[in-house]
C-alpha cells in the first residue's frame, strides 16, 4: 500500500506491506533508529512516538494507520541544533543509564507535558506507567520531567526552544 505520512515535519511517501508495524517503518524505511523496539506487545514503551500529538506505542500501530497523519519521533525533539529541555533534563538528572528506554520515556514525557505542563510526581509516575525502565528505578526520570516542566513553564508556544539557565540539578 502507498502511504503518505509526515514525520518530524517532513512528508514521506512509501510503499509498505499492510502488516508493517509503524516502529519498523520508522526504523527500517526512514532510518529513524531512535525509536527502539523492546517487546512488540506494548509492554515496555521503548517504541513510544506521537501520532497526531498523542503518545502511542509504535510496535502495535500499523504503518498504514499513519497514512495522512503526523508522527513525531525522539529525533523530532531537537530543533536547530538545540536539544529539547526534556533531553537536557534527562542528561542533567542522570535519567539515561543504559538509554534503551530513553526515547520512549522522552516521548511519553513530552506528551504528558503537552497535556499537563506542571504535573505532580504522582501524575508523572502515572503518565509514564506504560514505559518500563529496567535500570534506573525511575526516581531520576521523575526528577528530569519535573526539571523540564520548570524549564518549560515560562516558554510560549510549542514546548521547544532555548534551555533556561535556572532549574539545574543543584536546585
UniProtKB/TrEMBL annotation:
Domain named 2Fe-2S ferredoxin-type: residues: 1-77
Top EC group: oxidoreductase
E.C. code: 1.2.99.2
Annotated source species: Hydrogenibacillus schlegelii
UniProt KW Repeat keyword: no
Gene name tied to this protein: coxS
Pfam families assigned: Fer2 (PF00111), Fer2_2 (PF01799)
UniProt GO MF annotations: 2 iron, 2 sulfur cluster binding; metal ion binding; oxidoreductase activity
Keywords, comma-separated and alphabetical: 2Fe-2S, Iron, Iron-sulfur, Metal-binding, Oxidoreductase
Cell inner membrane in keyword set: no
Protein name from the UniProt record: Carbon monoxide dehydrogenase small chain
Classification lineage: Bacteria, Bacillati, Bacillota, Bacilli, Bacillales
Amino acid at each position: 500500500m502507498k502511504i503518505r505520512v509526515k514525520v518530524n515535519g517532513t512528508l514521506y511517501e512509501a510503499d509498505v506491506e499492510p502488516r508493517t508495524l509503524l516502529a519498523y517503518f520508522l526504523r527500517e524505511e526512514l532510518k529513524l533508529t531512535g525509536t527502539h523496539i523492546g517487546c512488540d506487545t506494548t509492554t515496555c514503551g521503548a517504541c513510544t512516538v506521537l501520532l497526531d500529538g498523542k503518545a502511542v506505542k509504535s510496535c502495535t500501530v500499523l504503518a498504514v494507520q499513519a497514512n495522512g497523519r503526523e508522527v513525531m519521533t525522539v529525533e523530532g525533539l531537537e530543533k536547530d541544533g538545540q536539544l529539547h529541555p526534556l533531553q537536557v533534563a534527562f542528561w542533567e538528572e542522570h535519567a539515561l543509564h543504559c538509554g534503551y528506554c530513553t526515547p520512549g520515556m522522552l516521548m511519553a514525557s513530552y506528551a504528558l507535558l503537552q497535556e499537563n505542563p506542571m504535573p505532580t510526581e504522582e501524575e508523572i509516575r502515572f503518565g509514564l506507567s506504560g514505559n518500563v525502565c529496567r535500570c534506573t528505578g525511575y526516581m531520576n526520570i521523575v526528577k528530569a520531567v519535573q526539571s523540564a516542566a520548570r524549564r518549560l513553564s515560562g516558554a510560549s508556544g510549542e514546548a521547544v526552544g532555548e534551555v533556561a539557565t535556572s532549574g539545574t540539578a543543584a536546585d
